[in-house]
Design brief:
The protein is an alpha+beta fold. The chain has one domain: GTP Cyclohydrolase I, domain 2 (2-Layer Sandwich), CATH 3.30.1130. It is about 20% helix and about 40% strand. The protein has two helices and six strands. A four-stranded antiparallel β-sheet has the order 2-3-5-6, with helices on one face. A hairpin with a 2-residue loop joins β5 and β6. The longest helix is centred in the middle third of the chain and has 16 residues. It starts with 10 loop residues before the first strand and ends in a 13-residue tail after the last strand. About 20% of the residues are buried.
């Protein structure tokens, strides 16, 4: 792909910007390359966000994720880069990205990164009987 990955992310207007609501997206087949060995790394990504004015378009998100297939990066770097790209495009009220990498050398890795608008406060949890 010739474009920077963030450039291929598309959005649409949030249909209910007056509400705080959560969007959860699972990417079960994320792949990138180990920067040391060049071997593939496999992960399941969990994106959770509270949109502000924009939501991510899912086909564009899929193409964005595929753009990492041939890129070498440490787990920590790729998780934070993806979060930064999504935050840059969407400007969400809140976003969390948890990247659950499959075993490599007998070790599983999970990297979690978050973004929160400085003016946004999470609503209190509702407990039902």
């Amino acid at each position: 792909m010739t474009a920077h990955p963030a450039e291929i992310l598309e959005t649409f207007d949030n249909p209910a910007p007056e509400n705080d609501y959560t969007i959860r997206i699972s990417v079960p087949e994320f792949t990138c390359l180990c920067p040391k060995t060049g071997q593939p790394d496999f992960a399941e990504l969990e994106i959770t966000y509270v949109p502000d004015r924009l939501c991510v378009e899912l086909k564009a998100l899929k193409l964005y994720m595929v753009s990492y297939r041939d890129k070498g990066a440490f787990h920590e770097a790729i998780t934070n880069t993806i979060l930064a790209d999504l935050v840059h495009v969407l400007q969400p009220r809140f976003m969390r990205l948890a990247a659950h990498f499959n075993v490599r050398g007998g070790i599983y890795t999970t990297v979690t990164a978050e973004h929160r608008q400085s003016s946004w406060q999470s609503p209190s949890a509702v407990e039902l009987p």
